């Protein structure tokens, strides 16, 4: 199979989704919680981001196929735990894309048109499915262009905003421990996303070299954008994200920001859906399912149907937006915990293991706030994955 992803397209594939909707909402939320002390939380979280990226990049280059990190988990802890990690990620993509699509619809639709939100979200999900089916090369190039434009505008706008201010506010003391801890939990999602990289490993040229270089490029961009944007936001008189773009886009700042926000949401959905499509294709082949289930377009269609069912349940008032977010978060946490536990065992360095321990502790704290819906589904998937047999077709030689 021809490898279609190089250093730049891999970095584009990761930068957009990791920035995602987080760069839109998290700086304001952190500022509302901590005020001028928010920059301290961002410095710590971006330090953990470096560790998170390194751990998953190192694990990705050991993955045997597009099952990604779940294959490494299976090799380390046993087949059932590998299947469990994959099932967590798949379940997360049943719900997460719907929440992100609903978020994107808020930027696409004009104010006061909330009744058509679910229709716009459905259109976003369809667009993302088409992007996934179009091929990984097109995906990578699309993400590279959009993430480069987004990072460039945010860095230029935030830098210009800080430069124009008469003085900068730099905290001279430490924040209250309780609020600081809550803020760290709140902005933890700014570093989630690196684990999906493994589900594209079969499409990457020279994975050992390409993935590590792409990780460094993406990590540098993500850290710079988050730190500079967050610091500019807390120093800006208006404390408005769109206003950070005024120095470079002028009176069109709100329109441009809305376009970037919707684009980042599309990047996030497409990358995670594409990763699960590739992972599931390999799993179905290994399970010996009929040929029709070996095609990526079929898996993408199946995921789209499930997403539409969840969207319908939301439109009917059965599942709230918070329920959807809670379920997706619980599944992502389950997958990340297994992945990090695997990294703890494989990466034999004391500082890395301490960092992984901190990440695991933060994930478990966030999990404690899971909703009843999320906990029930989490237990069902866990029990089913660990008890039911894992279908694997043995190769014939």
TrEMBL record:
Tagged with keyword DNA repair: no
Keyword Cell cycle annotated: no
Transmembrane segments annotated in the record for this chain: 7-31, 37-57, 88-111, 117-136, 143-163, 183-202, 214-235, 255-277, 297-318, 324-343, 350-369, 375-392
Localisation: Cell membrane
InterPro entries in UniProt: AA/rel_permease1, APC_superfamily
Domain of life of the source: Bacteria
Main location class: membrane
Family matches, as Gene3D superfamilies: Amino acid/polyamine transporter I (1.20.1740.10)
Membrane topology: Multi-pass membrane protein
Keywords: Cell membrane, Membrane, Transmembrane, Transmembrane helix
PANTHER family cross-referenced by the UniProt entry: AMINO ACID TRANSPORTER-RELATED, L-METHIONINE_BRANCHED-CHAIN AMINO ACID EXPORTER YJEH
Protein name as it appears in the record: Amino acid permease
Native organism: Clostridium boliviensis
């Amino acid at each position: 199979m021809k490898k279609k992803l190089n250093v730049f397209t891999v970095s584009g594939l990761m930068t957009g989704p990791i920035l995602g909707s987080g760069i839109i909402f998290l700086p304001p939320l952190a500022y509302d919680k901590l005020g001028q002390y928010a920059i301290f939380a961002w410095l710590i979280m971006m330090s953990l981001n470096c560790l998170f990226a390194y751990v998953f990049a190192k694990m990705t280059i050991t993955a045997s196929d597009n099952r990604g990190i779940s294959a490494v988990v299976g090799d380390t802890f046993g087949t059932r735990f590998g299947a469990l990690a994959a099932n967590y990620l798949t379940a997360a993509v049943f719900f997460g894309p719907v929440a992100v699509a609903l978020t994107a619809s808020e930027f696409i639709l004009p104010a006061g048109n909330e009744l058509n939100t679910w229709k716009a979200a459905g259109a976003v999900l369809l667009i993302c499915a088409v992007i996934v089916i179009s091929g990984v090369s097109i995906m990578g190039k699309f993400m590279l262009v959009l993430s480069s434009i987004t990072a460039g505008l945010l860095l230029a706008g935030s830098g210009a905003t800080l430069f124009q201010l008469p003085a900068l506010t730099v905290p001279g003391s430490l924040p209250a421990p309780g609020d600081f801890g809550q803020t760290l939990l709140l902005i933890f999602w700014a570093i989630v996303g690196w684990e999906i990289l493994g589900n594209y490993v079969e499409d990457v040229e020279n994975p050992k070299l390409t993935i590590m270089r792409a990780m460094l490029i993406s990590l540098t961009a993500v850290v710079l954008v988050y730190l500079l944007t967050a610091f500019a936001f807390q120093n800006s008189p208006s404390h408005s994200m769109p206003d950070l773009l005024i120095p470079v886009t002028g009176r069109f700042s709100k329109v441009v920001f809305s376009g970037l926000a919707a684009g980042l949401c599309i990047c996030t959905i497409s990358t995670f859906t594409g990763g699960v499509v590739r992972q599931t294709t390999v799993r179905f082949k290994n399970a010996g399912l009929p040929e029709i289930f070996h095609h990526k377009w079929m898996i993408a269609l199946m995921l789209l149907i499930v997403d539409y069912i969840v969207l319908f349940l939301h439109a009917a008032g059965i599942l709230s937006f918070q329920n959807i977010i809670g379920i997706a978060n619980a599944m992502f946490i389950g997958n990340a915990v297994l992945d990090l536990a695997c990294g703890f065992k494989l990466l034999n360095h004391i500082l890395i293991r301490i960092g992984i321990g901190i990440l695991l502790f933060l994930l478990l704290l966030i999990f404690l706030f899971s909703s009843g819906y999320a906990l029930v589904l989490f237990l069902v998937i866990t029990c089913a994955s660990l008890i039911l047999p894992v279908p694997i077709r043995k190769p014939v030689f």
